[in-house]
Specification:
- The protein is of the alpha/beta class and 153 residues long.
- The longest helix has 19 residues.
- It is 40% helix and 20% strand.
- It has a five-stranded mixed β-sheet.
Length: 153
């Protein structure tokens, strides 16, 4: 897929969210939800800060977007994330009926949109998400690699 200028702009916003996570010494993953070419939900990983294993960037952004639209259905929305969503987040993406998912980097240990499994593209669920990957992958991996290298030292 050839990504649009808007796709780059929104993924850059997700990377800014990931930078907020990095500042708080959380795994640097960021996410935005877009509706009608406007960001209506933002999130970054806050698992440690909130003592909550469900406080992933995607979950926070989906909740914010749902509150903005006053609806649990996000059918006309696109979710941009700096890392391939895990099982929990992929489930939330499916249940919220998000139309399109664009993520930067694959997660070979926990990703459920093509790496470990592909629940987002599994036709057996009641909703199928359009999934695209690789947008600003280098920038996302840079944040993640630096975070984990620093953590190990």
């Amino acid at each position: 897929m050839i990504f649009s200028e808007d796709d780059y702009r929104f993924m850059y916003a997700a990377l800014q969210e990931a930078s907020l996570a990095l500042e708080e010494e959380e795994v640097p993953v960021g996410c935005v939800v877009v509706h009608d070419n406007r960001i209506i939900g933002r999130g970054y990983n806050q698992n440690i800060k909130l003592n909550d294993p469900t406080a992933h960037a995607e979950m926070i952004a989906i909740t914010a977007a749902s509150n903005h639209l006053h609806s649990s259905r996000l059918n006309e929305c696109t979710l941009y994330c700096t890392l391939e969503p895990c099982l929990m987040c992929t489930g939330a993406i499916i249940h919220s009926r998000i139309k399109k998912l664009i993520f930067a980097a694959f997660d070979p240990k926990a990703g459920c949109c093509g790496s470990v499994c592909n629940h987002a593209g599994d036709g057996r669920f009641n909703h199928k998400v359009e999934v695209y990957s690789g947008l600003m992958e280098t920038e996302s991996l840079f944040l993640l690699k630096n975070f984990f290298e620093k953590l190990r030292n």
